[in-house]
Amino acid sequence: MVTQQQSRRRNGPEEEDTGLTERTVRINRVSKVIKGGRHLSFSAMVVVGDGEGKVGIGMGKADAVPDAIKKGSTYAQKAMIDVPMKGTQSLMRSLSNLGEQLSCLNPPLPDRGYSGESVRAVVELAGIKDIVPKVRRSTNPTNVVKAPFGRFTKAKRSRNRNCTKKSLSKNELVVEQEESSQIED
């Protein structure tokens, strides 16, 4: 009779169904020349999302492709963020750049869809249905994926900052400053 613990050892750990979808955007083979010959390793960029406003990207490096994808997936799950959305659309005309790459995300007419393989991975897994991406200058898949991801985090931060400023009046700000100075003393 096989116990449950012996079964886990044979089949590996049981994986939970988290409801996350992952998509591999890029796999890169890296060759390093060393004294004994060449050392091959692989890097993989993975996008993970739940389709309801949460998405993450991760870059995994390993000696084998499956291990690199697995590492990238783990890093992406740890780096998940909430995407600011309104229905199935995201930000109103979002412009972001990363290095020499410039990307623009425009809201189109409803039910028009989107194009661009690298941006599509981030946008679909985030749950955004209607968006038109435009990439200018460098079309490096790594930067094309990182640029909208960075824009989503900046938008979330600025939205939170604006909400806190609008909700507090001048009197409340003064009270908060006095309370914080009393705590420090």
Structure description:
This protein is 40% helix and 30% strand. Helix 3 runs parallel beside helix 4. The chain has a four-stranded antiparallel β-sheet. A hairpin with a 2-residue loop joins strand 5 and strand 6. The chain folds into two domains: 63 residues, Double Stranded RNA Binding Domain; 83 residues, Ribosomal Protein S5, domain 2, CATH 3.30.230.10. The radius of gyration is 22 Å and the shape is elongated. It is built from five helices and seven strands, in the order αβββαβββαβαα.
How large a portion of the residues is in β-strands, by DSSP E?
A: 25-35%
CATH fold group of the largest domain: Ribosomal Protein S5, domain 2
Strand-pairing-aware structural class: alpha+beta
Mean pLDDT: 71
Strand order of the largest sheet: 1-2-3-4
**What is Rg?**
22 Å
Number of helices: 5
Number of domains: 2
Q: Please tell me what the overall shape is.
A: elongated
Order of helices and strands: HEEEHEEEHEHH
Key traits:
185 residues; Double Stranded RNA Binding Domain; Ribosomal Protein S5, domain 2; 2 domains; 7 strands; 40% helix; disordered C terminus
SSE layout and pairings?
Layout: H1 4-11, E1 21-34, E2 37-49, E3 54-62, H2 65-78, E4 81-82, E5 94-98, E6 101-106, H3 117-126, E7 132-137, H4 141-167, H5 170-184
Antiparallel strand pairs: 1-2, 2-3, 3-4, 5-6, 6-7
Helix pairs in contact: 3-4
